[in-house]
User: Fold Peptide/nickel transport system permease protein from Myroides indicus.
Amino acid sequence: MSINSKSKTQIALQKFKKDFWGVLCFWIIILMSLISIFAYFIIPDNSRNANTGDLSLRSHPPGFTVDMIVIPQSQKTTWNQFWSGKKETLNQIPISEHFFRNDTLFYKSYSIDPESEPLKSIPTSRFDHISEQDIVQPNTFWLGTDNQGRDFLSRLVLGSRISLSIGFVAVFISLIIGISLGAIAGYFGGTIDSFILWIINIFWSIPTLLLVIAITLALGKGFWQVFIAVGLTMWVEVARVVRGQVISIKEQQYITAARALGFSDFRIITKHILPNCMSPVIVISAANFASAILMESGLSFLGLGTQIPTPSWGAMIKENYNYILLGKPYLALLPGFAMFILVTCFMLLGNALRDALDVKK
Assistant:
């Protein structure tokens, strides 16, 4: 008679699948991650950082459509541009009216008062092998334009790259530092434990945002500097949890047996102790992911995060928060709502993982 026993991983996975909100949030995070990775394949403005704009198109409402003269360039599209955007985009000129005459395109630039715009011309010889219908193309801004006349949808999608990247990098850095120090402190104890615990208490006593600002100012403003600064402030909680777990696990009989067999301390820690204390670390990582997103957005709002023209949800809120009182609140609310969805998903996912990995339930 055979008995089918399930591993703890299979039991936890079954419990997780029964959590509707946890599974829903997991797939939302996967979907947002895929959208951010393949952003330049789907966004209307595929220039680098979606930074193509025209001041004549600033602050138009969602669904706004305008005719554009598209002047092609001889630059070849490389594979890398599909992932990081094109350095130089097609030269696009917004127009209010146009007509063709004698191999020449006459047009008036887009303006609130088109009658005051002078009539300009471009020889159609610049558009080799392009029909007249393709020279002038309608361009629809589905979420409108920002205060610089840039496509708001494109920058909103690209902003998810910053938030997800800061979460992954910051959590990775915090796990490397926190697990290493926590495992060493908990396993060896004594003076080493006291010294590491002293360092943990020092970092724990400093306000997180203040510490991030100090590290950012020391490393300078920039993309990677923010990642490192946030990651260096999130390892403390991981180290405390891992230390407590290691102190409890190292007294188990199978650890004593491993020492009796002559296994090295490194093997005992990495092969026998750490795999058995990863459950709370996974839950903390989900919460830290959400905290990292909020922290980066706060730094960008203060001007200490990612710098112009890199799109970031926090920076987009800073650029457009004045429009809350000027009749276009969606310019500031949409990035905030996107951030709310992503952070909420990570928090609910963390709660679902906590319940699934709880052996008492």
Notes: The radius of gyration is 27 Å. Residues 186 and 248 are 9 Å apart (CA to CA). The chain has a mean pLDDT of 83. The beta strands are 64-71, 91-100, 104-109, 120-123, 136-141.
